[in-house]
Amino acid sequence: ADEPNCDVSSPEESFALHDIAPGEELTCNYNHFFETGFDFLGDRHLSEDSV
Questions:
Q1: What pTM was computed for the model?
Q2: Does 48 fall in a domain?
Q3: Residue 39: inside a domain, yes or no?
Q4: DSSP label at 35?
């Protein structure tokens, strides 16, 4: 996420970076899980038939 609301840098725990509203998606810096970074494909990976 460009503006994550959770910090997952510890293997033991994660914590909120700010108040998270009920129903709000929990997000983190997904690049944390990949040494070389990570690019989202978004809708580009969907075929015309699946949209």
A1: 0.61
A2: no
A3: yes
A4: T
DSSP result, 3-36: S-SEE--SSS--EESS---TTPPP---GGGG-TT
* Residue 10, number of CB atoms within 10 A of its CB: 8
Q: Give Cα 1 distance to the centre of its chain.
A: 4
What is the extent of the structural domain holding 24?
Answer: 1-43
- Predicted confidence band at 42 (pLDDT cuts at 50, 70, 90)? low
Separation CA 4–CA 22 (nearest Å): 16
Residue 50 lies in a domain: no
Give the total number of structural domains in the chain: 1
